[in-house]
Amino acid sequence: MSTRDRAPAPGRPGVDVPDRRGRTGLDAAGRGLARNPDVVVRDVEVTSYGWHVLRRTTFDHRRRDGRWTTEQRETYDRGDGATVLLHDPVRRTVLLTRQFRYPAYVNGHPDGMLVETAAGLLDGEDPETAVRREAEEETGVVVGPLTHVLDAYTSPGSVTERVRFFAAPYTAADRTGAGGGLAEDGEDIEVLELPFTEALAMARDGRITDAKTILLLQWAALDGPFAPAAARPVGPGRAARPSPGDRAAPGTPPG
Q1: Would you report the helix, strand and coil content of the chain in percent, each value rounded to 5?
Q2: Closest-CA residue to 23 (of 48, 59, 57, 56)
Q3: In terms of pTM, does the model score above 0.70?
Q4: Domains in the chain, please, with CATH?
């Protein structure tokens, strides 16, 4: 009997037998959770096991009035991610990317070309290592010191992903490569260096619609490298000293 004539191994791919990525036990995620006494997970089904995993979970939920209800939720598990805002505080620029995003295109974006901060999935790495890798692949920048800004769930109603947000300074000398992403991963990324004021205006007028990018640009304007010096905390009872990028010409509004 030839290999192609053999019957497939019994079992559920990704659950009892390996799927095409060699994974099993994909239905185990969520079982046994006990951090919230008002939620009891009853069953977890794997409904799709492509590159990422879609699950349908049945759980009991005790509502605020004390009643218990049985509910179902579908969750899309693509792993966690990290993103970084690359900024030059002296030249007052930021380094962003532009690439085609089909989900945005099919949901109303005019051409699907989104302007974003460099980002990617952790793929088993720690967030700092992963975001350095993504920044170098996408923008050609070798990242130096990182500032952790925040962590956020960007679509908590259905997607499990938690994104780690970072910021890092760069100079022209740090751009050691062309960027553009990895061709073998199907990436075709344009690198954009923009004045910070222009990037912030793009977030305000809708030219930038990517949530992670908007969050980091707003942080940079309010509390980060482009915030007014008097509003930038540096320690208990101490005022921040303005950086060279903060010294605007007389009569120039802050960026």
Answers
A1: 25, 35, 45
A2: 48
A3: yes
A4: 12-77 (no CATH), 81-232 (3.90.79.10)
